[in-house]
C-alpha cells in the first residue's frame, strides 16, 4: 500500500520508459501483441436505454445517455442540444492531481467533443420539437471505471454505442401544448445520425518510427507522441489529434490513417452487430435482460469483437464478403484489405523494421519513379510485386493528394 | 425509465446476490456487487497520503464518494453518500493508521431498487477484500410496507411503485447493533419493530454470503471458513 499513489502509474518512471522504448524498437510488446494488433473489445448493454459498458482488456468505461426537454440555445433555435462529459476519478482513482483542469481529463473531453459534436454526427435538428421553445437536450455521461491505457478509443466506442442504443420518448406539440408519451403509451424512438464516428489510437516512440496500436497504460505513459484518429463508416476523417515530443514523418501518419480507417469500419460493424443481438435479447422478454449485472454473472452471451467478427488468432485474410454489403465506397475495401496482410508479413519479421512501410512509399511517389518499385518489392515475398496503381485513388481524396 | 415487468418473487427473502472481486487494476480492493438487478462497483484505496487539512494524529481520514450513473451527483446522491459514510466511520478501525487516508468509492451500475442497502453492502465487501482494518463487518437491508399493508423484504423497483413506507437498516456482525436507520413514509411503531426484526434476520444471510464469497476468493471451502469464525 503506497502512501503516494499519485506517482505509481506504470510507465512514469525512467527505467520503465527506457524499457518500453527498447521493447518497441525490437518490435515487442509486453502482452505479446504485434504493433498493429489491438485488444479485444467487449460491449455490455444495460437494462436502461442508452447504457453500455465497454471493456478493452483491463480498460473499462461506462456510458449513460439521458435526455430532457428544455429551451434551445439562443444562437440555434431549431436545433437540439448535446452535452458530452467524461468523468475521471471515482472508482478509477485517477484524480490524484486534484486539479480542476487535469490534462488527461481535458484531453479526453476535447477529443469526444470534436469527434461527436464538431463533426456533426448526431442530427440535432431532428431533436427540435418546437423552434425557440422546446428541444431535446441529450446528455452523455462517460464514467471511467478502470484505466489501463487507450481511454480515447474506449470512451468514443462507449459514447457511440450508448447513443445508438438510446431511445427517447415520443412527443407531440399541438396548439402550444407539449405532450411527452410514456413507454407504455408510445414506443421510444432512436436518435438520428448523420454518420457514426469511432476513434483509433497510436503511440509513437523516439526509439523507433513504428507506431503501436491500442497502447496499455504502461505503453501510453512511456510514449513520446500519441496519435488519435477518428473515422466514420464512410472512411472520412472526423478528428485527428497528434502531438507529443517526437516528430513523426508524414508517410507514417498516412499509413496509420489507412489502417485506422479499416479498423474503424470493422469496429462499427461490430457495434451494429452487438446492438442487433441486444435488440434480439430484449424482444425475447425481460427475464433474459441481465443489464449491466451481466458483467458479474459472466454469461456466455458476451458481445466481444473477436467473437462477433469471427477473427482468428492468426490474423484475418480477406474480411468476409458479408461485411462488404454496407460499403459505400466498395473499391476502397479491397486495396485496404490487401494492405492488411502485407502489414502483417512486414511486422512478422521482428528485426527488419523498414518492412513496416512496404509499398506505400512507392504508391505515393510521382508516376515516373514507379520503376524503382520492382527493385524494392524484390526484398519482400513474390506475391506483392504486382500492385495496381489505381488503389491510390480509391481511398478518400485527402490521402491520394500530394501534400507538399 | 425502462422498468422491467413485475416479477413474481417471494416477499420475505432477499434477492439473489452475486459478486466478483478485484475487477479493477489500480486500487487495493474492488468488488462488483449485485442484489437482484441492482448492481454497483465499490473500490477502496488506503492507507494513502492525506491533505494537511484532513490530517489527524488520532486516526485515518475516511473519504467516501458515491457516484450515480448519469450526471453529476444530485441531493439524493449526497444523502446516500452521507448515510454510507456514517456507517463506514463506525466500522472502520481508523486508529490503526493515523495520518493517512482511506478512500472508498462507489459507482452505481444499475438501480433497480434498494440501492442504499446495496451500496452499504458493496462498501463492506470492498473494504473486506481491500484489507482495510475494520472493527466489525456490516450489512444493510431494505424493506417496504406496500399498498396492501404487507411487509416486502428487499423489493425490486416495480414493487416500490405505491409503497406506504420504506425502511433501510444496517447491522453489525459482532453484536448485532443498529448502525443505520433510514425511514420514509408513514407507519406505526409496532410495524417499525416488526420490520426491524425481519431485517435483522435477513442480515444473517448477508453475513453468510460475505463469509462464503471471501472464503471462495481465498481458495478455502465454506466449511473451513465456518469452523474458523
From TrEMBL, chain A:
Region spans: Disordered: 311-404
GO biological process: exonucleolytic trimming to generate mature 3'-end of 5.8S rRNA from tricistronic rRNA transcript (SSU-rRNA, 5.8S rRNA, LSU-rRNA); nuclear mRNA surveillance; nuclear polyadenylation-dependent rRNA catabolic process; rRNA catabolic process; TRAMP-dependent tRNA surveillance pathway; U1 snRNA 3'-end processing; U4 snRNA 3'-end processing; U5 snRNA 3'-end processing
Span of domain Exoribonuclease phosphorolytic: 37-169, 195-261
InterPro entries: ExoRNase_PH_dom1 (IPR001247), ExoRNase_PH_dom2 (IPR015847), ExoRNase_PH_dom2_sf (IPR036345), Exosome_comp_Rrp42_subfam (IPR050590), PNPase/RNase_PH_dom_sf (IPR027408), Ribosomal_Su5_D2-typ_SF (IPR020568), Rrp45 (IPR033100)
Gene Ontology cellular-component annotations: cytoplasmic exosome (RNase complex); nuclear exosome (RNase complex)
Composition skew (Basic and acidic residues), residue ranges: 392-404
The UniProt record lists the keyword Transmembrane: no
Record's subcellular location: Cytoplasm; Nucleus
Chain intervals with Basic residues compositional bias: 378-391
CDD domains on file: RNase_PH_RRP45
Top-rank taxon, per record: Eukaryota
Pfam families the record matches: RNase_PH, RNase_PH_C
GO MF, one example: mRNA 3'-UTR AU-rich region binding
Keywords associated with the record: Cytoplasm, Nucleus, RNA-binding
Gene3D superfamilies for the chain: GHMP Kinase, N-terminal domain
Statement: the UniProt record of this protein carries the keyword NADP: no
PANTHER family: EXOSOME COMPLEX COMPONENT RRP45, EXOSOME COMPLEX EXONUCLEASE RIBOSOMAL RNA PROCESSING PROTEIN
Family: Belongs to the RNase PH family.
Protein name: Exosome complex component RRP45
Organism whose genome encodes this protein: Drosophila mauritiana (Fruit fly)
Gene behind this protein: LOC117147595
Automatic annotation (TrEMBL), chain B:
Domain Exoribonuclease phosphorolytic: 14-133
GO molecular function: RNA binding
Alphabetical UniProt keywords: Exosome, Nucleus, rRNA processing
UniProt xrefs under Pfam families: RNase_PH
GO CC annotation terms, alphabetical: cytoplasmic exosome (RNase complex); nuclear exosome (RNase complex); nucleolus
Principal localisation: nucleus
Top-rank taxon, per record: Eukaryota
Subcellular location(s) of the protein: Nucleus
A GO biological process held by the record: rRNA catabolic process
Sequence similarity: Belongs to the RNase PH family.
Protein name stated in the entry: Exosome complex component RRP46
Gene: LOC117144685
